[in-house]
Design goal:
Length: about 250
């Protein structure tokens, strides 16, 4: 359980001379639910982009289950078992909720099975519908979903692909308090049988749902620990309060 699933070592990302990540070491153990925070521009999305093959680092290594991901193409990384959500939505609005899940699940089916006409819903799709709590809306077009429901559908679309690592970029952004609570519960459920990394800004959400938190600042790892430890860390206070003063 405590074995490392993801090991980032000595990661450097440079965009036209700008150092977005510097000498970053970061480890996720199997079965962990980890939150990644940091002020705007800290490098959180860049880290996810490197893990998923969207951005190539200047140097460093990203090992997933012992295998190097740097240099692999995006679809190969997805096939290896790494799934992510984006800040922008990827659901098909005209398709029903269940068809969106079915399509996502089909991603891993061999072509003949994909083309064969199927009856009913697969166990994986039914389980995902149940997990995301959208059973009552299964046959409605995804276009009618609220913002929160759409985010849950996207998480469901990842889960049916059976990834071993889920990377979620700001899943509660723009949600109501009630939707945030339901998302927190959903993350806990998903984390029972997946390793999950969540990028999140909302401190209130973190206090209620996070256990271990990693803080990035200006492309470097600032500190790691429980929510209480991280909040009590003077460096974290400086980074966040310093920003608040600047904005005031
Ligand atoms: N493709 C790119 N080209 C140039 N600079 C980039 C590129 N992508 C990111 N950056 C810069 O790298 C830094 C880190 O960006 P990143 O999006 O990873 O931060 P973040 O921690 O996710 O911030 P936010 O909370 O605002 O999403 C920022 O200063 C950003 O402007």
């Amino acid at each position: 359980m405590s074995e490392a699933l993801l090991e980032v070592r000595g990661l450097n990302v440079v965009f036209s001379g700008f150092h977005a990540l510097t000498d970053l070491d970061f480890t996720l153990r199997r079965g962990e639910l980890r939150f990644l925070i940091g002020p705007n521009g800290a490098g959180k999305t860049t880290l996810i982009d490197v893990i998923t093959g969207l951005t190539r680092p200047a140097s460093g290594s990203v090992r997933f289950d012992g295998r190097e991901l740097v240099g692999r193409r995006e679809h190969r990384i997805v096939r290896a078992g790494v799934g992510r959500t984006f800040q922008t939505s990827v659901v098909f609005e005209e398709l029903s909720v269940v068809d969106n899940l079915d399509l996502a699940a089909g991603f891993r089916r061999p072509l003949p099975a994909l083309l064969r006409r199927r009856r009913g819903v697969s166990d994986a799709v039914a389980a995902a519908l149940d997990t995301i709590g959208l059973g009552d809306l299964a046959d409605r077009p995804a276009g009618v979903l609220s913002h929160g429901q759409r985010q849950w559908l996207e998480i469901g679309m990842l889960v049916v692909q059976r990834p071993r690592l889920l990377l979620l970029d700001e899943p509660v952004a723009g949600m109501s308090r009630d939707e945030r609570d339901r998302t927190g519960e959903l993350l806990r459920t998903v984390a029972r049988d997946h390793t999950v990394l969540v990028v999140e800004h909302d401190m209130d959400f973190l206090r209620r749902f996070a256990s271990t938190v990693t803080v990035l600042h200006e492309g470097r790892l600032l500190c790691q620990g429980t929510v209480a430890q991280v909040q009590a860390d003077p460096r974290v206070q400086e980074v966040y309060l310093g920003r608040a003063k600047e904005a005031a």
